[in-house]
Amino acid sequence: MKRLQYIVILLFSFSAMAQNDIKLHNLQCEMLTNPLGIDVLQPRLSWQFQTSQTQVEQVAYQIIVASTLEKLKANDANLWDSGKVTSNASINVVYSGEELSSKDEAFWKVKVWTNKGETEWSESAFWSMGILTYAKWNSRWIGYNELFPGDSVSQFSKLSARYIRKQIDLEKKVKKAKVYLMGMGLYEFYINGEKIGNQVLAPVPTDYTKNVKYNVFDVTSQLKQGENVLGTILGNGRYFAMRQEYKPYKIKSFGFPKMNLILDVEYEDGSIESIKTDESWKFTPNGPIRANNEYDGEVYDARKEMPNWNKVGFDDSDWLNLMWVQEPGGFYEAPMTPNMKIMDEVKPLSITATKRGTYILDMGQNMVGWLQIKVKGNRGEKITMKFAESLKEDGSLYIANLRDARVTDEYILKGEGDEIWEPKFVYHGFRFVEIFGLQSKPLLDQFLGKVVYDDMETTGTFECSNETMNQIFKNAFWGINGNYKGMPIDCPQRNERQPWLGDRTTGAYGESFLFGNQTLYAKWLDDIKYSQTLDGGIPDVAPAFWRYYGDGVTWQGAYIKVADMLYQQFGDKESIKKHYPYMKKWLLYMETNYLKDDLMTKDKYGDWCVPPESLEIIRSKDPTRLTDGEVLSSAFYYHLLQIMKKFAAISEANQEDITYYDALAERVKKAFNAKYFNRDTNTYANNTVTANVLPLAFNMVPDNLQDKVFQNMAHEVEVTKQGHVSTGVVGIQFLMRTLTEFGRGDLAYKLASNKTYPSWGYMVENGATTIWELWNGNTANPEMNSQNHVMLLGDLMIWYYENMAGIKSSAAYPGFKQIIMKPDFNAGLSYVNASYKSSHGLIKSHWKKNKNKLTWDITIPVNTSALVYLPIADASKVKINKSKLDKVSENYKTEEGKLILELMSGTYSININ
């Protein structure tokens, strides 16, 4: 089965030519942490430059690809020789060589010509193909579809982990070996007692009836001639025990854990052997992991440990044989995104004894992952850990907002000195842990928080002169990474943890400045596509673990908006091409079923989480605060039609599509203004900020009236709401940028730096270390007051980078091929120091100002350029790298009182007096 292109960014080190010092980074795989087993035939190749020279631009490249490293070293490009290609493209270059088959390997290198000289060939890089067709998966699924003593299926289902082993005998010396593995719901895989890979909670979740992810590992070094043992622990994950039997009408059920494995061994004599899962594999449900449920926690009985169970010589005579079982149903795919792993560690701040003999551990940070403990005690004693995000006034855990999630880990001691333990198949969202069962007060160094999220790089840094804004940035950082779990989830602590589309409609864009989330969101687009109904509907949650198909626009529009983000931030056209037919199908579905008199009549959630009139309630009932759903859906539908025009061109759809979007958008805009625009007051609908900001942001306001509408909206923010947020999830996605783009960056800054309710700063002032679900999350009904959500960030992080730091990708040259550097120096900050690792390289923007002077240090990556906006029209007052502007460049112009420079790559220090 052919698939669309996958991104393989490989950063190389070039040998410098005598005439220049242009190099590339050391060999690594940035976007794909494990280049084994991709299942697309045309991966996109990328490289980055490193040099002390300025104004370096690539003018041509040559890529060669070979089937072996030896051939590559000899420049025998038996798979592909691109020849010298005149192009400045250094990201997303499509492999166009020989068609590759299952398990093929490809080795490649690149040479680059620049305006400053030619490089030598890079070091080599590598990828291999996975299993491309269903027929090639000629192994079978094994499992055991029965409960055992201690297991249960209920609202709080329990199922012990299954420990699986297979002893094999390799009669010859091993030259190369790879494992192809699917373990449902979660797995840990071992060879001769050694865990393979550093991934946790693998594989990433999908709707297993639609697609199943397999992982590939090179295990050459773990195998030896003679006897070996393959061992797997299967946990439950989202496959089993996710409250399925509690609400079967709502929650999808998949079945009992199961696995499918192929081990390909190539011997030194050239012969090949494949070991596969079959009925000879043995298992026991009587290992130490007695229960593992994402919502409720993990139970571990160390007394039931089986030393060396995954090594040669272990007696498994009382273990059961596994059975052939039904496959999950979904097609087998290589992962589009890396697995999760332990990305950080947090040491606790304090331990406090309670009156009931327990201890409260404070990690100091609301985090997501689990707790490692080091304890000592008698055999059979039980240590219980319950997790929460905050405390009540009496110092006890606040757990009312967790709903029915039990979030409790249990460890039963074996009584053999110091015992160190951490769970394998659960995660918790927590700052505080109440620990039961300790016989004496523990020391802080007995505990360590393990932070778990998708294996991705932190790409953005931000610091400014306002400490509240700095803390908001830290809160956003922790909230975003904690909610990356192989898919973007809404919250990590209560009995929900679902990938709601509406939370990331614009949020994904802001997140992309902080984290290299490209492959995560490319995978999520697949999740959405797989969840689409035959008639075109898209769910509220994807993968559709919950059967919620609400047919909204502001939520489901994330499908289109996230694809647009991938294009804008990473230059990813392929996701658009892949998903365009399904996006078009959904738009037609909405038009057919809900477009009445050219207005979109269907909306489900409204402007979700508007700050309510009372601090104790969740949802406002005051009609003056709420925006009509038809206003939201119609404006958003218009906006999506505009994006689809661009997508149609990128996808090379026929002109009829573009004409269709144009005509329909014009009709929607006309009907929208006819019904909702008040020409007497220059306001929309009932004059909420959201009702006005959407038509402003989407360019729906009649000509020459934009400023008047904006002034009314700004008055509503500044005067009526006294400089506070009054929007919900929909309006907040466009508020900060729209205020700044219409000249009121100072008002946006007031919102960003505010410390009183409702604001992000109010969360900080009340002890938040992540972002709340509600503006009044410290006082609202616990039914819905998660303290780790990201949906209310809206466009705040975008505003931080694009409008305050001045790091923005040009719409004309996406993927930061051209950078728009246009900070609002007069919004209220006195300095900003920010950086962003783009696909082309590191971008920096560090400015500081006083009454008489502005200093701005910027870094522009090689093979890119930047439009740099200076807040002055007089070029004589500008120096760049201590030289007058006229001597450095003639490539500038004056526009609306600002100098606009076009600078090529390099580091520049700009001074304005």
UniProtKB/TrEMBL annotation:
Alpha-L-rhamnosidase six-hairpin glycosidase domain ranges (all copies): 458-804
Catalytic activity: Hydrolysis of terminal non-reducing alpha-L-rhamnose residues in alpha-L-rhamnosides
Residue ranges occupied by any Bacterial alpha-L-rhamnosidase N-terminal domain in the UniProt entry: 172-343
Alpha-L-rhamnosidase C-terminal domain sequence ranges: 811-881
Keywords annotated in UniProt: Hydrolase, Signal
The keyword Signal is annotated on this UniProt entry: yes
Top-level taxon of the source organism: Bacteria
Protein EC: 3.2.1.40
Residue ranges crossing the lipid bilayer per the database entry: none
Keyword Nucleotide-binding: no
Signal sequence, start to end: 1-18
First-level EC class: hydrolase
Gene Ontology molecular function terms on file: alpha-L-rhamnosidase activity
Name this protein carries in UniProt: alpha-L-rhamnosidase
Origin species: Mariniflexile litorale
